């Protein structure tokens, strides 16, 4: 089995966060945290994950500042896992992944869970990327640019 490589020094904004959320269990834990799960047992029941793997993923998410542990809200001696500001920042990432999955991994008309606006009860509008001037952009409209220091060093 190939050894996992850290991307913590990469200049790429896609690669660097993979140390924190680069496996499916971590993203599913974050998804469940957004759905209100807070306790180890709740995550385990939802995911059907072995305790040692769940412990390792929760520890990694805490280490990377995506979740934090807090005393149990019911006053019991347990701890709960809650999303930090950094963790809540993953919401648009999960929405984008969810919408992509709904478009490409379900047959037309196939039932699936739906993300809806709590206030209006209506489905969330499809995410769109906008240029600084407000235009909707696609991958064809963008290019990845190296930082100035890296551009001058490679010349």
Low-confidence segments, given as residue ranges, are: none
CATH C-level name of the largest domain: Mainly Alpha
> CATH topology of the largest domain, anyone?
Arc Repressor Mutant, subunit A
**How are helices and strands ordered from N to C?**
HHHHEEHHEEH
Head-to-tail CA distance between termini: 38 Å
Overall 3D shape: globular
Number of domains in the coordinates?
A: 2
| Total beta strand runs | 4
Q: Largest sheet, if any?
A: 2 strands, antiparallel
Return the structural class.
mainly alpha
Helix share, percent: 25-40%
Question: Based on the structure given, which CATH architecture of the largest domain is correct?
Answer: Orthogonal Bundle
According to CATH, the homologous superfamily of the largest domain is Winged helix-like DNA-binding domain superfamily/Winged helix DNA-binding domain
What would you report as the Rg, rounded to the nearest angstrom? Answer: 19 Å
Strand percentage: 5-15%
Total number of helical segments? 7
Strand order of the largest sheet: 1-2
What is the topology?
Elements: H1 18-21, H2 24-34, H3 40-47, H4 51-63, E1 67-71, E2 79-83, H5 85-88, H6 91-104, E3 129-130, E4 136-137, H7 148-154
């Amino acid at each position: 089995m190939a050894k996992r490589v850290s991307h913590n020094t990469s200049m790429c904004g896609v690669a660097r966060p993979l140390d924190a959320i680069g496996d499916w269990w971590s993203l599913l834990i974050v998804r469940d945290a957004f759905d209100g799960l807070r306790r180890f047992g709740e995550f385990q029941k939802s995911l059907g994950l072995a305790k040692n793997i769940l412990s390792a993923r929760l520890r990694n998410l805490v280490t990377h500042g995506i979740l934090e542990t807090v005393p149990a809200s019911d006053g019991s001696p347990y701890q709960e896992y809650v999303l930090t500001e950094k963790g809540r920042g993953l919401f648009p990432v999960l929405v984008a992944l969810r919408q992509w999955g709904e478009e490409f991994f379900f047959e037309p008309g196939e039932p699936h869970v739906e993300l809806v606006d709590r206030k209006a009860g209506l489905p969330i509008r499809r995410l769109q990327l906008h240029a600084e001037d407000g235009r909707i952009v696609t991958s064809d409209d963008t290019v990845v640019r190296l930082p100035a220091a890296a551009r001058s060093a490679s010349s």
